[in-house]
Amino acid sequence: MKFKVGILGTGNIGTDLLFKILKLDFIEVIIFAGRRYDSDGIKIAKSKNITVTDKGIQYFIDNPKCCDLVYDCTNSEDAKKHAPILKSQGIKVIDLTPAKIGSMCVPYVNNEIILKEDNINMITCGGQSSIPLLHVLSNHCDNIEYIEIVSQIASKSAGMATRINVDDYIKTTKKAITQFTNCKNVKVILNLNPAEPCVDMQTTIFIKSKNLNLSLLTDKVIDKIEQIKKYTPYYELIIPPKEEDGILIMGIKVRGNGDYLPEYAGNLDIINSAAIEVTKILNKNEKHYNN
Amino acid sequence: MKNIIITDSTLRDGNHSVKHTISLDSIKRYCNFADRVGIPIVEVGHGNGLSASSLLIGKCPYSDEEMLKVAKENLKNSKLGIHSIPGIATVDDIKHSIDYGVDVFRIATHCTEATLSKSHIEFLSKSNKEVYGVLMMSALVSPTQLLEQSKIMESYGAKGVIIMDSTGTYLPMDVEERIFLLKKELNILVGFHAHNNLGCAVANSLIAVQSGADMVDACIRGFGAGAGNAPLEILIPVLNKSGYDIGIDFKETIKESDNVMDYLIPSAPIVSPINILTGLSKLFSGFEKPIMKISRLYNLEYSSLIFELGNRKLVAGQEDLIIEIAEKLKK
Hints:
The structure holds two protein chains of two kinds. Chain A is α/β, with parallel strands linked by helices. Helix content of chain A is 40%, strand content 25%.
């Protein structure tokens, strides 16, 4: 039995996710739902013989229980309207907007919620790129006083929903960092860079803490990166952890797989790859139950 | 006689040149002066604006609340203004600043990213606040692109748009072309913010006004990032002599431009050779330090490195490419 899924939202995230899902053999895409038949995403989906609609959430109202799982790739405002409708039909949601309706999830940081929750929030690209490392660091530092993360993404990789929701990006990333590290003093900055050729996604992490054990932390970070690379292969440490005046700095670069947008759009890739990883975990456990 | 609105950016842009450490006492003292001499808008805060205190850009020893409240207490007639960049500050931060008494909101984006300002400008415009759109690093795009981006901000409800020559690249003819086009095609106010890398800050501000600009920015002694801005004490008489009404007391301003050297400005900006080169190459002035460091490391003339960075059209945030380009030049 294949997983029946729907993708709601046909912008950069939705279209890239479609490319990634089509590589999975245990999934059947029931519907790719947007709002305009002339959008690039819908055109591409059609060319791949995927069923498309311009009715958005209305499609799911008209065709109740058509899917087991829906990926919400719209924007935080719409995602909040979609959530109760899908919930009433018993459809599980993986939310790729910063709406933070359900529990926030980072693969291999809190996998335990994946089966339990009916709405799983994938936080943000900045969250997915920094939290795995921040979580490890927080487990191996006495007390983190302050965390700052700065992400740079290529302008071309930021669609209108990302731009309108820039505040939600900041607030959701901050909230998630606090949840996964227990550090309440968090600063998040997002930079859109229009340079040509397009810049790769980069995240710089700053941590203020007493008694930093640099060699231990470096080892832990390197181990963690190996795990992240299993689902985001082009995730790399470009500034290894270094300490200056009680502040730990490190930098990572995330390149994408080039599925929909080119490789520079690591920001799309990391959140979508995390969503795919969650889907795989779900599938593994479903199989387990069936057996 | 046309009235020109001066925004005094001393207590915001000036913060760049002292690593964001202008004291609360200096804010108080300068605001007292600005209020007394009739400056219409006084901008206060971290160099990168609201909520920008960070390890990345520079930590400010005071909170926005402390700085803005002190300023507000000392401004009875002048309006209190802030610079705010979406991606750094959020609408929640803006709401707090309203509580602290901010009157004028300048929402700034890179010159190609006006759409990032949508939710911020719309919120302020719907709340009936005085909100302007600001396009930074404007020399990196053509006049037509600048117009397109300005129209986007106009459509969100901005009362005006301010063009920043953040790289200090423009000559008077460049400013004339851009301001003239914006005035012709927009139905909102147009402002200009100069930097002095090529020694044209005052001339550029004058021609901006002569081309129809309604607002220009100035800083006492030119106190601002890099080569500094248009000096307030020069701009006042220049605009007066050119027949514009700006309503600021010149004699008091001249006196204060001496006084500020005792309490606010450690050393007035000068145009150093590297400022000239970054201005010519349309490079972000923050590249100054990494360029010096890397050119020493690779034993390169910093001028050749700068010209090459300019050819590659590097923008802020691409510091990592400086090393890559230095390595190529070395070969």
